[in-house]
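User: Let's play a game. I give you a shape written as tokens, and you guess the letters that built it. Ready? Here's round one.
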């Protein structure tokens, strides 16, 4: 009797994998940014705008950042699914400090430059089941990104702030694995790359994200 009951339940458990699902993810992004590009932007554009002439200069960039997202998808078969949702690749932080002068008057200068890439992503997933609960998958798609940035500058003349944004379409790809728990929940571990994430005017570079996530089938 127990064997019959178990057999009756098994098809419905497998059928739950086909259909709609929703989920979320959280991870860490490493964005390939060249600090030299920010330094050139600062010395060639920012400082001259305010009449500042640097005599010494230090800078740092933090490109290891948190990422998160929400997604929904439809599983057509055991080998194919499509997904769409919101993905925040994360923010980068550039900091520069300089000693110099303005019209021969000694001054210090501070530059804080922060940028963020996020947007709607769509992707197709090719899935390969390894066992009843464990499978691996590959992802290919695009991120319709909104790239925002803020610039803070301060010297003896006082502070100044500005913000700007650009839109772009970036190719993305990834590989991952998932493990089914309680028949309708999938725990995920995924590596994903957004190619040339961002915008040239704001800070562009490949963004590699390692994330954990969970999804639930309707």
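Assistant: Ready! My guess for every position:
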């Amino acid at each position: 009797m127990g064997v019959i009951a178990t057999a009756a339940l098994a098809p419905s458990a497998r059928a739950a994998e086909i259909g709609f699902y929703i989920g979320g993810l959280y991870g860490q992004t490493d964005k390939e940014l060249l600090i030299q590009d920010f330094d050139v932007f600062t010395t060639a554009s920012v400082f001259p705008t305010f009449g500042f002439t640097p005599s010494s200069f230090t800078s740092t960039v933090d490109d290891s950042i948190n990422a998160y997202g929400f997604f929904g998808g439809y599983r057509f078969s055991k080998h194919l699914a499509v997904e769409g949702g919101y993905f925040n690749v994360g923010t980068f932080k550039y900091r520069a400090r300089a000693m110099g002068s303005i019209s021969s008057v000694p001054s210090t200068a501070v530059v804080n430059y922060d940028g963020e890439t996020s947007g709607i992503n769509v992707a197709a997933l090719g899935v390969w089941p390894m066992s009843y609960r464990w499978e691996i998958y590959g992802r290919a798609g695009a991120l319709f990104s909104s790239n925002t940035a803020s610039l803070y500058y301060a010297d003896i003349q006082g502070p100044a702030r500005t913000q700007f944004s650009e839109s772009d379409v970036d190719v993305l790809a990834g590989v991952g694995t998932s493990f089914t728990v309680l028949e309708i929940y999938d725990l995920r571990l995924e590596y994903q790359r957004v190619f040339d994430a961002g915008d040239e005017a704001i800070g562009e570079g490949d963004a590699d994200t390692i994330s954990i996530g969970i999804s639930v089938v309707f």
